[in-house]
Amino acid sequence: MQLKAVFWDLDGTLIDSEPLWHAGEFELAEANGGHWSEDLGWQCSGTPVPDVARKMIEHGCTLSVEEIDKQLKDYVFNAEIAHLPWIDGVLDVLRSLKDAGVPSMLVTTSPRRMADNIMKQSDGLFAGYVCGDDDAKHKPDPAPYLLAASKLGIAREDMDHCVVFEDTPVGIAAGVASGATVIAQTCTIRTDTTGLGQFDSIDGYAGVTVDVIDGYVRRRLAA
Question: Is residue 193 a contact partner of residue 177, using CB atoms and an 8 Å limit?
């Protein structure tokens, strides 16, 4: 097997959490003099929460960036504590990888408490994580993926033996810049992610196994 590790983005890749973020944005905007829309929510998808906050302020929300950042993260965190909306089939993929001895790492810009919640609710399927509170530049910089690889003892020159699953342009850019074999997940996002340098794109996890993921790496190395 050529596959050394799989790195997973969180929102929109492992869990269908965009509806939670959007619901929180609507609630904060409506309660604090702003106006928001589904289109605005999707425009902000995959961007850091302070950037979302600034967009909300542009549209009339009277809270500060810091207040929006805290309250929005609290809203989503509490929703995810109650129920993690795993994308259909992704837990089977994670189990397939673990059974084959291939480590999975969570790589997210979400805060540590959200990453810890994923660890608690995923039954040991992840070897570890890198989160937004770690000392690394955020996506689209490749630093989070390179940090995750280093935690597994994987050198940068071996990143082409690793697969990154991402869903947003920002995340895809980070994965591509890291040198990994990037697979774009399109099943939850409305943004067009074609032609961003990913090796392939998929719409859901039906039929995805460790052998399929290893095949991505083999085909890339052969090319």
Answer: no
What pLDDT does residue 164 have? 98
Burial tier of 155 (Cβ tally within 10 Å: 0-12, 13-18, 19+): exposed
Strands 181-185 and 5-8, by their bridges, are unpaired
- Count other Cβ atoms within 10 Å, centred on residue 220: 17
pLDDT > 90: what percent of the chain?
A: 90
Residue 4, C-beta contacts closer than 8 angstroms, at least 6 positions apart: 102, 152, 154, 158, 161, 162
Neighbours of 124 (CB within 10 A): 8
Burial class (CB in 10 A: 0-12, 13-18, 19+), 29: buried
Q: Mapping DSSP to helix (H, G, I), strand (E, B) and coil, where does residue 185 land?
A: strand
